[in-house]
């Protein structure tokens, strides 16, 4: 079924966007047709062509069996593989082009483990109806490039509307992860879920529990790295999906009563995320204009901005005089962030980096009027370690006050701190701060063997280095002996 109402110039524009791919599309289409099989480009590549976006995927669907597909791709490509044979998918590569071809599907999910129960179909329209959203249920028949859009995906794209080819409750029952994918398309593509889609997501939110943490993590990452992650996150929270996979986020919607006023932590966190994104790729004061130490998009910075205040619900205290405090919410939040990211199966490096930034996000404000000693600057840089540039941006983004005088004062204070850091970095190479004596020299001065005591001595000299800056070796040895004598 084609789309007769579609103006031809729209289809021509989409095909023109696919121009670099036309040779491989035509060649594969001809090869499958010669074997008596149908072949169509499907899903994301078609959708992105209508959006004038470049897709990194080349996904095809075919009437050929996996065995027939494999024979054709083996003859066409430089290499081919069949890791997805169980689901009807064969992959191949020719030069710079990588393709995946899947036999028409009519599968369903078993409702418990989320593993597809594979059943191959015999026509393109039935294959398209099982896909997640109408904007992904479009295909281009090859080699003739005829559009097949039985569920109005092009119209929905034009309206920026997100609908499902089948009833949304059926689609989400097939695979609950599609609900998170809806929120991801809000963040990535600026689509708006139709009312019936939002209703189905809200009613089925609890079924997300049967989806693996790894699949949920992957969708969350794509959402957070989207153009407008805040819009996608709002969908997760408003539908109750966040309660299932990131409950710390909706928990930020703390009740605010007339006697204990404090800023809306949920809205503040989303604003901090937006402001952090604005600072991605932006050089700091004194930096070379071409120096963009935090690229766009940066997953660690965005997660840290989103999660930086998740310790507040656990630490909120109402004070006797009507105030509200959140003492140590940075430390509590770091532990909560690490626990949540581990549960979502994030890698160790990402988990540790995000938790460290959450732990450090208040450090700047601990120095009050901004009169930073050299010792304080050294500790700030050393504690931040490889995350200094991210910490700069997180700290700046965390200022959401409407008081322009206060905002200006904080901005200038941080400008001054960055200048101080740059000066000390240049003078002392703070990124490589070490004690003035290495482990072997410490052992020789004290006459001790490697072990816990040597580590204690090393840490003492490191603190001296941070407090006072570089010392010559003779003075460092004298300080070490003094410490050793006092220790005994």
TrEMBL record:
Pfam family, any one: PolyA_pol
Family matches, as Gene3D superfamilies: Beta Polymerase, domain 2, cca-adding enzyme, domain 2
Identification of the protein by name: CCA tRNA nucleotidyltransferase
BP GO terms, sorted: RNA repair; tRNA processing
Keyword tRNA processing: yes
Cofactor: Mg(2+)
Its EC number(s): 2.7.7.72
Source organism of the structure: Janibacter limosus
Keywords, sorted A to Z: ATP-binding, Magnesium, Metal-binding, Nucleotide-binding, Nucleotidyltransferase, RNA repair, RNA-binding, Transferase, tRNA processing
């Amino acid at each position: 079924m084609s789309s007769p109402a579609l103006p031809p110039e729209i289809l021509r524009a989409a095909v023109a966007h696919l121009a670099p791919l036309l040779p491989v599309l035509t060649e594969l289409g001809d090869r499958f047709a010669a074997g008596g099989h149908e072949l169509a480009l499907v899903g994301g590549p078609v959708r992105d062509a209508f959006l004038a976006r470049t897709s990194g995927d080349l996904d095809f669907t075919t009437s050929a069996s996996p065995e027939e597909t494999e024979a054709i791709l083996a003859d066409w490509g430089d290499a081919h593989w069949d890791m997805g044979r169980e689901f009807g998918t064969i992959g191949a590569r020719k030069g710079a082009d990588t393709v995946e071809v899947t036999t028409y599907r009519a599968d369903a999910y078993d409702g418990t483990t989320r593993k597809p129960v594979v059943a191959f179909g015999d026509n393109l329209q039935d294959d398209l109806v099982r896909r997640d959203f109408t904007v992904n249920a479009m295909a281009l028949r090859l080699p003739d490039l005829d559009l097949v859009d039985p569920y109005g995906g092009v119209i929905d794209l034009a309206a920026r509307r997100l609908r499902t080819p089948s009833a949304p409750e059926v689609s989400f029952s097939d695979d609950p992860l599609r609900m998170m994918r809806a929120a991801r398309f809000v963040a990535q593509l600026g689509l708006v879920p139709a009312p019936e889609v939002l209703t189905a997501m809200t009613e089925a939110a609890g079924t997300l529990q049967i989806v693996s943490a790894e699949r949920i993590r992957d969708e969350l990452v794509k959402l957070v790295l989207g153009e407008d992650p805040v819009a996608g996150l709002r969908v997760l929270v408003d539908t109750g999906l966040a309660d299932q996979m990131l409950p710390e986020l909706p928990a930020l919607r703390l009740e605010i009563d007339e006697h204990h006023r404090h800023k809306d932590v949920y809205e503040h966190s989303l604003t901090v995320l937006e402001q952090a994104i604005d600072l991605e790729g932006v050089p700091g004061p004194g930096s070379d204009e071409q120096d963009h130490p935090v690229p766009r998009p940066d997953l660690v910075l965005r997660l840290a901005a989103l999660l930086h205040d998740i310790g507040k619900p656990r630490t909120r205290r109402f004070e006797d005089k009507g105030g509200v405090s959140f003492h140590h919410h940075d430390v509590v939040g770091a532990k909560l962030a690490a626990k949540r990211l581990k549960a979502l199966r994030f890698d160790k490096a990402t988990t540790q980096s995000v938790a460290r930034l959450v732990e450090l996000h208040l450090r700047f404000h601990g120095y009050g009027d901004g009169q930073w000693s050299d010792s304080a600057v050294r500790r700030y840089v050393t504690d931040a370690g490889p995350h200094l540039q991210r910490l700069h941006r997180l700290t700046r983004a965390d200022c959401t006050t409407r008081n322009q005088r206060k905002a200006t004062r904080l901005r200038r204070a941080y400008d001054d701190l960055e200048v101080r850091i740059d000066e000390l970095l240049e003078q002392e190479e703070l990124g490589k701060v070490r004690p003035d004596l290495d482990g072997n020299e410490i052992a020789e001065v004290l006459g001790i063997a490697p072990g816990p005591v040597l580590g204690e001595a090393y840490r003492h000299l490191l603190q001296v280095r941070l407090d006072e800056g570089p010392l010559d070796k003779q003075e460092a040895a004298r300080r070490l002996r003094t410490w050793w004598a006092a220790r005994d």
